[in-house]
Amino acid sequence: MNELPRLSTGISGLDPILGGGLVEGASYIIQGHPGAGKTIFANQVAFGNLSRRGKVLYVTLLAETHDRLFQSLGTLEFFDKAHLGISITYVSVFQTLRDEGLSAVVSLIRQEITRQEATLLVFDGLLSARDRADTQLDVKTFVAEVQSQAAFVGCTVLFLTSTRIAEDSPEHTMVDGVIELHNELVGVRSVRRLQVRKSRGSAALGGYHQFEITSAGITAYPRMEAMLAPMVAADDHSAPPPLSSGTEGLDRLMGGGLPRSSVTLMFGPSGCGKTAMGLNFLSKANKEEPALHFGFYETPARLQAKARALGVDLEKPLGSGALEVIWNPMTENLLDKLGHRLLDAIRRRGVKRLVIDGLGGFERAAVHPPRLVEFFAALMNEIRRLGVTTIATWELRDLFGPTVAAPGSEISSLLDNLVMLRHVEINSQYKRTISVLKVRDSAYEPIIREVAFGPQGIAVSTPLEAVTGAATGVATPSRD
Amino acid sequence: MPLIVIAEDEFLIADVLAIMLEDAGYEVAAASHGKAALALVREKRPSLVITDFMMPLMTGLELAQAMRRDGELTHIPIILVSGAQGSIGRAHPDVFDAVLDKPYNEKKLIAAVKALLTEPG
After folding, report:
1. Lowest-pLDDT range of A42-46, A259-263, A399-403, B44-48
2. Where in the sequence is the domain holding A412, given as residue range(s)?
3. Which of B53, B57, B102 sits opposite A112 (nearest CB)?
4. Do the chains contact at A65 and B12, CB–CB below 8 Å?
5. Which of A148, A327, A328, A336 is the most exposed place for a label (fewest CB within 10 A)?
């Protein structure tokens, strides 16, 4: 089987979506409405190509002047005007098209590719070429001639157009790939997504992938469940000893500790001790077992203050680099951006102890909530595969109530261990309780215990007095 | 009426530039790339050439160098107007009589044109 030679796009996250990058000497249509990001896309690929000693010919049919284009590109980090006119050349062929027609444009492009020894040709304004063409056949011939001339010398081509080219159109048929950029309103927010609609010779990741445009240009976030699908965690039968939770009494409750490379969901209402148990788990971090707090609610400073109040020492592991705190404010987030940020942080430091506080932060970032099950399945599998032991928290909406809703039955079943924390009212007193509902491949104590806050921090204490209904938070004394 | 040849691939700029120069009392002929401009210069023998840098088939620098090599064209003053390659132009004082930066400044351009056209040849 032959591997096609590839041209990296230079756009973070895009190469895996394209199955390894653009195919050298192939031609692509980049389509999207005005403002979708086509120009930034093409220029980022162009400047990325320059850093690998490529040469770029950028041909426009646009009304906008190149000077205006450079002004707006000047706000982006990848743009370097020192290359202009030397390794990247912008030329307008509008007058040639107007005065002499498409065939003259083809001839001019052919001469320019050779003259510039271009490895990448960007043709911005296929729409104008279509307007000018007298028949569909003309455009087909135009696209075919430009791409065959470019392919002859191994030059990759990007045709940019602001119209959506139909799948049965000649242009769509001719080119090797079609990448569509969208900028859509979802509720009150806008979300940028891209889709590879055609990809000849490459197993591209289908469907939508979120991307954003910042001063660094475009960053694409491959859809987690699409990218990680083939990676299945190998079952570890060697059963290494479990990892200590760091909370007194909890290891015993869970049958010895947290099974390694497992995901534990700690769920309960606000104030019942989820974050505190997470902090205990992280305080055990050391060089061999680096830890990460990936949170949404507390700033790093608030988290440290909370730890101090609980008597948990985070200063030492933070100071030694054994612990990292990443705070993701609950503003407009992108689900896959969060997922990639988490995985990158795990891989970067070889994290072994992870606290996600909490899964609700991911849920809020989902613009298409039905995919959360697949998203979490992919994310959790990858986290396990990387040998990370995880505590994830989930906040129950009701402080008290007869219904105990874990995060969707499908999501709960993706998690290895379930630990429930509750406030229970007994005889006009509130008690914090903890109980284990599930531990992967291990026996555990099926007893509801009290949670105590003492000078040594949070700890699992004695079994709760005999009541019924503790799991709902409203208990009545058991009748003997 | 002195004739000025404009070499500029971007039609919007070429059009505005032509109007600007015509309003100032010059005759204008425009070409959309360096090669066409060189042919136009050979044919029309203008009093002055205003050229862009990045153009298809022949850059403004190549156009100017070709004119300087041609005994019959070498005396024609050339102004380079460029967005980003002004420094390349300024590095070649032997081929350009003036280098102006884009965006166009009408007063500066007309002043440069007048100065070059009134200079004793």
Report:
1. A399-403
2. 250-477
3. B57
4. yes
5. A148
Element housing A411 (H / E):
helix A409-412
CB contact under 8 Å between B59 and A85, yes or no, is: yes
**CB < 8 Å & 24+ apart, contacts of A438-443:** A439/A254, A439/A255, A439/A259, A440/A259, A440/A262, A440/A416, A441/A239, A441/A259, A442/A242, A442/A254, A442/A255, A442/A256, A442/A259, A443/A255
pTM strictly above 0.80: yes
Q: What confidence score (pLDDT) does residue A14 get?
A: 97
Q: Both A389 and A433 in a single domain?
A: yes
Q: What would the pLDDT profile of B65-120 be if each residue is shown by its tens digit?
A: 999 999 999 999 999 998 777 788 888 889 999 999 888 889 999 999 999 998 65
User: What is the CATH topology of the domain spanning B3-32+49-118?
Assistant: Rossmann fold (3.40.50)
Domain check: are A140 and A289 in the same one? no
List helix spans (H) across A268-334.
Answer: 274-283, 300-309, 315-320
Residues A258, A138 share a domain: no
Q: Are residues A213 and A274 in the same domain?
A: no
User: A30: which 2 tokens?
Assistant: 């980049």
**In chain B, which residues have their Cβ closer than 8 Å to the Cβ of A112?**
56-57
Q: Using CA atoms, how far apart are residues A35 and A192, in angstroms rounded to an integer?
A: 10
Residues A161 and A280 reside in one and the same domain: no
**pLDDT of A234 above 70:** no
Whether A212 and A262 map to the same domain: the answer is no
Q: What span, in angstroms and rounded, lies between the C-alpha atoms of A457 and A450? A: 14
Distance from CA of A69 to the nearest CA of B (A): 11
Distance from CA of B47 to the nearest CA of A (A): 24
Chain A CB contacts of B33 under 8 Å are 91, 96, 108
So what's the ipTM on this one?
Answer: 0.88
Output the average pLDDT for chain B: 93
Contact B9 A99 (CB under 8 A): no
In tens, the pLDDT along A342-363 reads 999 999 999 999 999 989 999 9
At A389, which amino acid appears?
T
Contact (Cβ atoms closer than 8 angstroms) between residue A155 and residue A25: yes
Tell me if residue A21 falls in helix, strand or coil.
coil
- Cα–Cα dist B87/B84, whole Å: 8
CA torsion through residues A157, A160, A161, A166, sign: positive
pLDDT of residue B36: 95
CB-based contacts of A237, cutoff 8 Å, min separation 6: none
Report the percent of chain B where pLDDT is more than 90. Answer: 79
**CA–CA distance, A145 with A121 (Å, rounded to integer):** 13
**Domain CATH for A33:** 3.40.50.300
Residue A232 lies inside a defined structural domain of this protein: no
Residues A218 and A261 in one domain: no
Inter-chain CB proximity A92 and B11 less than 8 Å: yes
Domain ranges of chain B: 3-32+49-118
Within-domain flag for A233? no
Looking up tokens 């595969």, which residue turns up? Answer: A385
Kindly report the average pLDDT of chain A as a whole number.
89
Question: Within a domain: residue A236?
Answer: no
Residue A361 within a domain: yes
